[in-house]
Design brief:
binds zinc ion; single chain; elongated; 280 residues
Length: 280
C-alpha cells in the first residue's frame, strides 16, 4: 500500500478532477483503474522506462539498497568515461562483469510484456528507455519503437574509430583469454555501446525521444525516479504539449506533481493491470 502522504497526493489530484466534473478516486486500486482507462482510451502513448522495470528480471538498479553502485563502488568508477579509458585493470574487471551479465541471460518480465499490448493495438509512439538491457526488444517490440537514450550493453563501440559490433564477439575473445580485447580495425579501446558519465548522449536519439513526447496524448513513466537528465525532460515536454501523465514506480519521484495518476506498487504486477493484459 502507498505511504499516507502519497495517498493524500493521489487524492488531491483526483479531487481536482472532481471539480472538473470527473469521477473521484480514493484508493490506489482506483488510481490503477484510472490509469487503465487512460491507457485504454489513448491512441498515442509514449512510455519512458528506467531501471525499476528490469529489477524483476534480476538486473539490479544503481542506487537502491541492493543497487549496483551501493554494493560495489568500483562499478560507479567503471561507469565513468575518464576512469574507464585510463585504467586497464578497471577495464579487465568490466569485461568480467559484462561476461557475467550476458551469461545470466536476463529475460523480460510481466512488466515488459504488458507494454507490448500497447504496440499491438498500434497505440505506441515510442518507448524511451534509460535501460541498456534490450529487454523491451526481447519482449517483442519492433526495434525502431525503442529509443535507447543511454545506449545498449549488447554492442561494443570502439572509442577510437566508433566501429560497432555485437557484444558476443568481444566476450568470446575474453573467454579465449584476452583480458581487455582491443578494436580489430584500429587497436582502440573497446567499451560497451552505453553512455558513460562524462560522455555526451546521442543527440539524434534524444531528439527522437523529445519528438515522441511532443506527439503523445498519454505519457507513461515506469520504473524511473525521473531525476536523470536529460531523459526525464521528456515528461514535462509531454505535459506542456497536453498529454495526460501516469507515473508507475516503486517510490515517489521528482515529478509526481505533474501526474494525473501516481501508482507506487510493484511494477511487474501493476503494469499488466493498467495495460489491460489481466483484469485488475
Ligand atoms: Zn577501432
Amino acid at each position: 500500500m502507498p505511504e499516507p502522504e502519497i495517498l493524500a497526493r493521489v487524492r488531491a489530484t483526483f479531487s481536482k478532477n472532481r471539480q472538473n466534473g470527473r469521477v473521484t478516486y480514493e484508493s490506489q486500486a482506483q488510481a490503477i483503474e484510472l490509469a487503465k482507462q487512460l491507457v485504454a482510451t489513448s491512441s498515442k502513448i509514449t512510455v519512458l522506462t528506467g531501471a525499476g522495470i528490469s529489477t524483476d528480471s534480476g538486473i539490479p538498479d544503481f542506487r537502491g539498497p541492493n543497487g549496483l553502485w551501493t554494493k560495489n563502488p568500483d562499478a560507479e568508477r567503471a561507469a565513468t568515461l575518464q576512469f574507464y579509458l585510463q585504467d586497464a585493470q578497471l577495464r579487465n574487471r568490466s569485461w568480467q562483469t559484462r561476461l557475467k551479465w550476458i551469461n545470466n541471460n536476463p529475460q523480460p518480465n510481466d512488466g515488459h510484456r504488458a507494454l507490448l499490448a500497447i504496440e499491438q493495438r498500434n497505440a505506441l509512439v515510442a518507448i524511451v528507455t534509460q535501460n541498456v538491457d534490450e529487454l523491451h526488444q526481447r519482449a517483442g517490440h519492433q526495434p525502431n519503437k525503442v529509443l535507447e537514450v543511454h545506449g545498449t550493453l549488447h554492442r561494443t563501440c570502439c572509442w577510437g574509430c566508433k566501429d560497432r559490433r555485437p557484444m558476443t564477439e568481444a566476450l568470446a575473445r575474453v573467454q579465449a583469454g584476452e583480458p581487455d580485447p582491443k578494436c580489430e580495425l584500429c587497436g582502440g579501446i573497446l567499451k560497451s555501446d552505453t553512455i558513460l558519465f562524462g560522455q555526451s548522449l546521442d543527440q539524434d536519439v534524444m531528439d527522437q525521444a523529445m519528438q515522441a513526447s511532443t506527439e503523445c496524448d498519454l505519457f507513461l513513466a515506469v520504473g524511473t525516479s525521473l531525476s536523470v537528465f536529460p531523459a526525464c525532460n521528456t515528461l514535462p515536454r509531454a505535459k506542456t504539449c497536453g498529454a495526460k501523465i501516469v507515473i508507475v514506480n516503486g517510490q515517489p519521484t521528482e515529478m509526481d506533481k505533474y501526474a494525473d495518476a501516481i501508482i507506487n506498487a510493484p511494477i511487474s504486477e501493476v503494469l499488466p493491470q493498467i495495460c489491460g493484459v489481466v483484469n485488475s
